[in-house]
Large ribosomal subunit protein bL28m (Schizosaccharomyces octosporus), 175 residues
Amino acid sequence: MALRGLKKLAYPLLPVRGNILNPLGKFQQNLYGGSKVEVGHNKIPKFGHKTKRTWTPNAHFKWLYSETLQEKIHLLVTSKVLRTIEKEGGLDQYLIKSTPGRLKTLGMRGTELRALVLHKKGVQNPVIEQLPRDDEAQRRYLAKVREVVLKLNRSKKFYHKIKSLVGQEKPEAVA
C-alpha cells in the first residue's frame, strides 16, 4: 500500500504548541531528535582572534523500514536518533513511544508517521479518549485540536476529514 494513500487517513495524535517557524524546513521534515545547528566562535590560541563557526548535526539519509506500514521510508536521520531507533527495536516502536521529550522532538514528519503507524495498528483516537468530562472544557479542547490540525496541514479537505473524526462520539463503556 502506498504511503501517499495512507497519508490522507492520518490525524495528529500530538498537539503542537507554539508557532511552527518553517514547516517545510529540514528539521520538521526529518528525524533530528531535537538537534539543531549551533553557532559559535573558534578562538585561535596564539593571537586570540575569534572566527565564526557553525556546528551541524551528524545527519545521514537512511531507508528505515516500518513493519506496521510494510514500507521503507527515506529520511534524514541523526546518528543519535538512529541509535535510539535501534535501541527501541525499530522505527515503529520509536514513533509510538510517547514520552514528552520524544513527542516534542518528532517534528511534523515524525508526527505524521506516528499517526500513520497508530492508525494502521488500529489504535482508538486518543483525542477522543482523553476528552474532559465537562461540556465546556470539551468544546475548548476540540477547538484547540482543530486549530492545531490546521497548523500542521493547511489542506481544507484534510481539515474536514479531521473534523469528522474528532466530532465522533466516544463509545459508551460496558458495565
